[in-house]
Amino acid sequence: MGSSQARSSENTRRRFLQISIVALGCAGLPRAARPEPVEATIVAAAKAGLERAGSRVIHGDIVGVADFGQPSRSLRLHLVDLAGGKMQSLLVAHGRGSDPAHTGWLQSFSNRPGSAATSNGDYVTGEYYLGHHGRSMRLQGLDPSNCNAAERAIVVHAAPYVGPEVVRAHGVLGRSEGCFAVCPSDVTTVLERLGPGRLLVATKL
After folding, report:
1. 160: CB partners within 8 A, 6+ apart
2. How far is CA 120 from CA 108, 148, 168, 181, 201, in A?
3. Are the C-beta atoms of 178 and 97 separated by less than 8 Å?
4. What would the mean pLDDT of 80-98 be, rounded to a whole number?
5. Residue 22 has pLDDT above 60, yes or no
6. CATH of 9-203, one of 1.10.1610.10, 1.50.10.10, 3.30.700.20, 2.40.440.10
7. Distance of alpha carbon 186 from alpha carbon 92, whole angstroms
8. How far apart, in Å, are the Cα atoms of 84 and each of 16, 24, 55, 101, 125?
9. Is the pLDDT confidence value at 73 over 60?
10. 10 Å Cβ neighbour count for 130?
11. Which strands make up the sheet holding 62-67, listed edge to edge?
């Protein structure tokens, strides 16, 4: 192999390592019904969210992007490390009010109290607390589309209906009351990397 070919191969290897996605505890999951959005699209959504949020977000190093355009069986909660240039992708449930037939696909967003639906928009992560689901994290909605998040007690928490074994058994995750419910084995990672004072974007990419 010539020196120019060797340099090209090494550059390709380095680039792959820089954009690698780490998926925790989700080996053997089925593929999504459509291709996952490319890393550049997710990173762009994270950066655009930071621009919208401005000074309302304290820490801009890591941004959460929940892509509810993907089915619940997909790794659709992306923790984007803008400082380190890496991304970690995990399972997250949507609200039952957003998917009444339990198809695994989010059909609609809602900010209405009592809707049990997922709300789209930008959130800033708040304090940790111990609740019914164990250690959890509060969220504040920053947009008209999710301004009732605190009133609705929309938080990040672990749930037994989220996990690779649930996907293997049922093909879909269970549904929350609108909260960002994650796999119990992932919750410590999510809480420690994504809060408090950071941005969580709920959207469809």
Report:
1. 174, 184
2. 9, 11, 27, 15, 8
3. yes
4. 96
5. no
6. 2.40.440.10
7. 10
8. 14, 18, 21, 40, 20
9. yes
10. 8
11. 21-22, 86-90, 77-81, 62-67, 199-203, 121-131, 134-141, 155-158, 180-182
Amino acid of residue 52: R
In contact, 122 and 199? CB cutoff 8 Å: yes
Contact between 69 and 205 under an 8 Å Cβ cutoff? The reply is yes
Place of tokens 């909605």: 141
Q: Where are the domains of the chain?
A: 9-203
Name residue 17's amino acid: L
Nearest alpha carbon to residue 174 among 161, 189, 190, 155: 161
pTM: 0.82
Q: C-alpha distances in angstroms, 201 versus 1, 46, 179, 189, 190?
A: 45, 7, 13, 17, 14
| Greatest Cα-to-Cα distance within the chain, rounded to the nearest angstrom | 65
